[in-house]
Amino acid sequence: MEDIVKKRIKQVLKGDQSAFEEIVSLYQNRLYQVCYRMLGNRHEAEDIAQEAFIRAYINLHTFDQKRKFSTWLYRIATNLCIDRIRKKKPDTFLDAPVPGTDGLDHYSRLAHDSPLPEEEVEKMEQQERVQYEISRLPDKYRSAIVLRYIEELPLQEISEILDLPLGTVKTRIHRGREALRKQMKKL
Amino acid sequence: MKPCPEEIVQYMHDYLDGEITRRDEQILKEHLEQCPACQEHMDQLSRSVAFLKSASHIEAPEGFSARIMASLPKERQGAGVRRWFGRHPMLAAAAMFMLLAGLALFSNFNTSDQQLVVSTQPNLVVEGNKVTVPEGETVKGDLVVRNGELHIEGEVEGDVTVINGSKYMASTAVVTGRIEEIDRAFEWLWYTIKSGIKEGLSVFEGPGADDKEK
Ligand SMILES: [Zn+2]
């Protein structure tokens, strides 16, 4: 797959914009999923994933073609997500609920700052609960945990995506697992 | 009861990362068998991981890639046209042919092109619509005669092209280049396109570096 992607990249660099569509199709689900798990909101996830692809397009000439394209793309997306989380002000959480989002946004909007009462957590569907627990993880651990367990990437690749030493990535994943364990001791 | 070894929690994580040495794994295993607290800790970690892995796959919304394509910065002007011609050189030639044919039929061929046109070499003899390369003379460079009769008795150092006309070669005639006769308007057009196609395509393709985004 990387081969076809590299071919398309060359075409885009030659001015063939339409060749970018295949690149988007190949990675859109993975990128959107990371953004969704990081941000916990479908609208924001779409917004950021789209921004990530546009940035990739604009900066494609800076991509080192000897490297793995998905790593580069994930890196753009996770950086954008981390920025977005940092800029998020508490009043963002007061947005009206968005229809057709299965109630997931409601819980993630409340995020980790204000844990829900226990009985409400217990009423959650399994999938709601997963997103809720991820959103309660501290930002630093969340990106590493999402890349490890949602995207199922090897530690080495995560270290390249987050631009952190391998040891730091391991520490974050260990702490993320511990945080999760404490969040859901009663599971 | 003796306290748990300090590294035991680290061993749990190494185990979950799949990066534990056989020796450490042995220590971990032996400790967990005799320590319910650490066994519980390990179980909670494993359950947390399993819980994360149970997250369902999320797919990008409908129309996502189309929206991205629509919001990309516009291509440099003309890049699309250049690409199209680059991919379809024969269609490009045909399109150019049609264009030139149209122009030629409505202008050139009806009027001035009926007149004799000849490339200007000093030692050519022109009488009426008859052009002669006299015996013993050498014409240097390519010779083009349009709407006329060309008589070659001497020598031409170059190509000879006769368009819409005729050509007689005497036994003494010598032409060092190629000889081409083009009789009909469309053939002449093809000739024009053929000789212009390299130039034409290089115009369409442009220098590669130009196509890149800044
Ligand atoms: Zn113990």
UniProtKB/TrEMBL annotation, chain A:
<keyword id="KW-0805">Transcription regulation</keyword>
<dbReference type="GO" id="GO:0006352">
    <property type="term" value="P:DNA-templated transcription initiation"/>
</dbReference>
<dbReference type="Pfam" id="PF04542">
    <property type="entry name" value="Sigma70_r2"/>
</dbReference>
<dbReference type="GO" id="GO:0003677">
    <property type="term" value="F:DNA binding"/>
</dbReference>
<dbReference type="InterPro" id="IPR007627">
    <property type="entry name" value="RNA_pol_sigma70_r2"/>
</dbReference>
<dbReference type="InterPro" id="IPR014294">
    <property type="entry name" value="RNA_pol_sigma-W_bacilli"/>
</dbReference>
<keyword id="KW-0804">Transcription</keyword>
<keyword id="KW-0731">Sigma factor</keyword>
<dbReference type="InterPro" id="IPR014284">
    <property type="entry name" value="RNA_pol_sigma-70_dom"/>
</dbReference>
<dbReference type="InterPro" id="IPR039425">
    <property type="entry name" value="RNA_pol_sigma-70-like"/>
</dbReference>
<dbReference type="GO" id="GO:0016987">
    <property type="term" value="F:sigma factor activity"/>
</dbReference>
<keyword id="KW-0238">DNA-binding</keyword>
<dbReference type="InterPro" id="IPR013249">
    <property type="entry name" value="RNA_pol_sigma70_r4_t2"/>
</dbReference>
<dbReference type="InterPro" id="IPR013325">
    <property type="entry name" value="RNA_pol_sigma_r2"/>
</dbReference>
<dbReference type="InterPro" id="IPR013324">
    <property type="entry name" value="RNA_pol_sigma_r3/r4-like"/>
</dbReference>
<dbReference type="InterPro" id="IPR036388">
    <property type="entry name" value="WH-like_DNA-bd_sf"/>
</dbReference>
<protein>
    <recommendedName>
        <fullName>RNA polymerase sigma factor</fullName>
    </recommendedName>
</protein>
<dbReference type="InterPro" id="IPR000838">
    <property type="entry name" value="RNA_pol_sigma70_ECF_CS"/>
</dbReference>
<comment type="similarity">
    <text>Belongs to the sigma-70 factor family. ECF subfamily.</text>
</comment>
<dbReference type="Pfam" id="PF08281">
    <property type="entry name" value="Sigma70_r4_2"/>
</dbReference>
<dbReference type="GO" id="GO:0006950">
    <property type="term" value="P:response to stress"/>
</dbReference>
<feature type="domain" description="RNA polymerase sigma-70 region 2">
    <location>
        <begin position="24"/>
        <end position="89"/>
    </location>
</feature>
UniProtKB/TrEMBL annotation, chain B:
<dbReference type="InterPro" id="IPR041916">
    <property type="entry name" value="Anti_sigma_zinc_sf"/>
</dbReference>
<keyword id="KW-0472">Membrane</keyword>
<dbReference type="Pfam" id="PF13490">
    <property type="entry name" value="zf-HC2"/>
</dbReference>
<feature type="transmembrane region" description="Helical">
    <location>
        <begin position="90"/>
        <end position="109"/>
    </location>
</feature>
<comment type="similarity">
    <text>Belongs to the zinc-associated anti-sigma factor (ZAS) superfamily. Anti-sigma-W factor family.</text>
</comment>
<dbReference type="InterPro" id="IPR027383">
    <property type="entry name" value="Znf_put"/>
</dbReference>
<protein>
    <recommendedName>
        <fullName>Anti-sigma-W factor RsiW</fullName>
    </recommendedName>
</protein>
<keyword id="KW-1133">Transmembrane helix</keyword>
<feature type="domain" description="Putative zinc-finger">
    <location>
        <begin position="4"/>
        <end position="39"/>
    </location>
</feature>
<keyword id="KW-0812">Transmembrane</keyword>
